[in-house]
Design brief:
With 647 residues, the chain is of the alpha+beta class. The protein has 19 helices and 17 strands.
Length: 647
């Protein structure tokens, strides 16, 4: 039995009265990979369509041929223009021979809207005006472009610090534009980790969003509450019949919501920030496209929420820091007032320090050392105060001794007095030496090296003059001092400050690199670098410097040899001279147990004083480090009190 022939637009009946050109054209349409329709330009009706067109519109060939081009479109096109006007204009352009055509929005038999890109060609048929119209569904491409552009706008909003609510609303609208019939929302998880807070749902009923505020998450708390509780996606295709919504259906029933898929929003893979939900008014399960959109939405929402949380956290830290600064400022102000009160008797010393401070402040980079004056002055109070206590006590004992002489002085009394006088003398000397050391060390920072004489000299000759006294200072210890220099290292610089720098570096080696009776070698070398600068190195094979100490070697008053000859200023002064009047830099290479090398990188011609960056900048914490020069206040006062109590 032969099957009945299929007579339709793509397979016309042999007896159909079709023009010969139309028959040939019809055969071409049948094999086209795109949807193609043949349109009568006068009536706007379809007179032929291929199988691709039938599949695109979800209609049979006969159904398509019973419609006009206007019938295949929604009532209004983009920009809210009536569809009839747009199609009439399109047909008119085709009649005039134009081939360019705008995109049209079409409707399938199922009511799905899609955007069609048009390619039209007028056909030369005698007695009729026909148009070949190729329709390409570009909905997916348009949606993809809209999604990419939307993501870019959202990331820009996040980067510019747009309010979280506005950013999330824009995200929800972007996702809703990608899928028909979807309504999106974001709920945030409160800081207590269990309470829901609505954040965005621009097209969901406001009353419904408000009803979610304050609900708790749990194992059966609707889609969103359960998703946050499980930390995993929850798909509810039928709200009314799902046990997760038992007790919550009354919230959605008035608004016709029937499906809800919710996905938690994470920080990385850890803490849950909230949830993203997609609602539909019909029963529905997610497809691949929906899953992709969910991933985009949760990722962008997570970025926006985390950015806002971090900004709020930073604001809290900033406020707390301001409170701490204000509190600390008050404490420092009170401490300063107290220090000024107890240091009135040190007026002359403070005047000297004030003069030194004024000199330092006049140099740009010494402005930061101004605060150091108050710290050193405060530390002077301990040795001078102790000296005053001892002197006052001895004066009183002298009066007592004078009275004892009038009534007969016992030898035991005199012996006690002499012993106490000896101890008092040693205390006075130690405390006054400590005060003098502080004042001298502080003044050394402000020495104006620019006053040194500038002249031309050979570096090798200068090192040759320095070597004998350096060897003499190392004679009492098993330390070898060597010096080598490339010939003809001519310099136009300041030999005096340069000599002081080398001496300070040498003294630093003697004090720190070779402790006790340890022996070793100190090498002083000079050479010209490839860039023309001169490298002058002071190298030892001693103990080396620990990394945590190497970072602070140039800080003023920082020393690990307090009381053993270390003032904490040698390297600080050397650094200031090198970077200031000499116009170079100083580099340190060191490793514990393998020695240290200080390298001066100097220009052969020193800059003019105005260019040399005269002055230094005190590192942060210098004021606190100045306290290392004085014996702890409690210990020093205890000595004086013990002496006074002995009388």
């Amino acid at each position: 039995m032969q099957p009945a022939p299929n007579h339709g637009p793509a397979n016309p009946a042999p007896s159909a009265p079709v023009h010969a050109l139309e028959v040939n054209y019809h055969a071409m349409l049948a094999h086209s990979p795109d949807a193609v329709v043949l349109v009568d330009l006068d009536s706007g009706r379809l007179i032929d369509a291929n199988l691709k067109a039938e599949a695109m519109f979800g209609m049979s060939g006969s159904a398509l041929l019973s419609r006009s081009l206007v019938d295949l479109c929604p009532p209004r096109q983009g920009g809210a223009r009536p569809c009839a006007d747009v199609v009439t204009e399109l047909l008119g352009q085709a009649r005039e021979g134009e081939t360019a055509a705008p995109a049209l929005t079409f409707l399938t038999a199922a009511g799905r809207a899609f955007e069609g890109e048009l390619r039209m060609v007028r056909l030369p048929v005698p007695g009729r005006r026909l148009m070949h119209l190729r329709i390409i569904d570009v909905t997916e491409r348009s949606l993809a472009e809209a999604l990419v552009n939307g993501q870019s706008r959202l990331l820009e909003m996040i980067a510019l610090g747009a309010p979280l609510g506005a950013t999330l609303d824009q995200l929800m609208l972007l996702i809703e534009g990608q899928s028909q019939g979807v309504l999106c929302s974001v709920l945030l998880l409160d800081e207590d980790g269990e309470t829901l807070r609505p954040a965005s749902g621009p097209n969901l009923p406001a009353a419904y969003m408000a009803s979610l505020d304050g609900l708790k998450i749990g194992p059966r708390a609707g889609s969103c509450g359960t998703a946050m509780f499980r930390k995993d996606m929850v798909v509810v295709s039928d709200i009314m019949g799902d046990p997760l919504w038992a007790g919550y259906t009354g919230l959605v029933e008035p608004y016709g919501l029937r499906a809800c898929w919710s996905t938690p929003i994470h920080v990385g893979k850890g803490q849950v920030l909230g949830s993203f939900a997609m609602y539909y008014r019909e029963r529905r399960s997610p497809g691949p496209d929906d899953t992709r959109l969910i991933g985009v939405a949760t990722h962008l929402a997570g970025i926006a929420i985390e950015r806002t949380r971090r900004e709020r956290e930073l604001a809290r830290h900033r406020e707390h820091l301001e409170e701490l600064v204000s509190e600390r400022t008050g404490e420092l102000t009170r401490a300063k007032e107290h220090a000024e009160h107890i240091n009135r008797e040190l007026a002359q010393t403070l005047a000297t320090l004030s003069t030194t401070q004024n000199e330092l402040v006049r140099r740009d980079k010494l402005a930061a050392l101004g605060s150091l004056v108050a710290g050193v002055a405060h530390e002077l109070n301990t040795p001078l105060g102790n000296s005053l206590v001892v002197a006052t006590t001895m004066a009183e004992r002298a009066r007592v001794l004078t009275a004892d002489l009038a009534h007969g002085l016992r030898r035991s009394t005199l012996d006690v007095y002499l012993a106490q006088a000896d101890e008092a003398g040693r205390l006075l000397v130690r405390n006054l030496q400590r005060a003098a050391s502080l004042v001298a060390a502080f003044k050394q920072i402000g020495v104006d090296q620019s006053a040194s004489q500038r002249r031309a000299f050979m570096l090798g000759d200068l090192l040759g003059e320095m070597l004998p006294p350096l060897r003499v200072s190392a004679r009492q210890r098993p330390i070898t001092v060597l010096s080598t220099s490339e010939p003809a290292l001519a310099m136009d610089s300041y030999p005096g400050p340069l000599t002081e720098v080398v001496s300070n570096l040498f003294d630093n080696c003697m004090l720190h690199a070779f402790e006790g009776e340890r022996g070793g070698t100190i090498r002083i070398t000079a050479a010209r670098r490839a860039d023309g600068a001169i490298a002058l190195a002071v190298q030892d094979d001693g103990a080396g410097i620990a990394p945590e100490l190497a970072a602070r070697v140039y800080d003023p008053f920082y020393t690990t040899k307090l009381g053993l000859g270390g003032s904490g200023l040698g390297l600080h002064v050397a650094h200031n001279i090198v970077t200031g009047v000499l116009g170079g830099r100083i580099e340190l290479q060191t490793e514990p147990g393998k020695g240290s090398t200080f390298t001066l990188v100097l220009p052969p011609v020193a800059p003019q004083i105005a260019e040399a960056g005269a002055g230094v900048e005190a590192p942060a914490g210098a004021k606190a480090e100045a306290k290392a020069h004085a014996k702890p206040e409690a210990e020093a006062k205890a000595e004086a009190k013990q002496l006074a109590g002995g009388y």
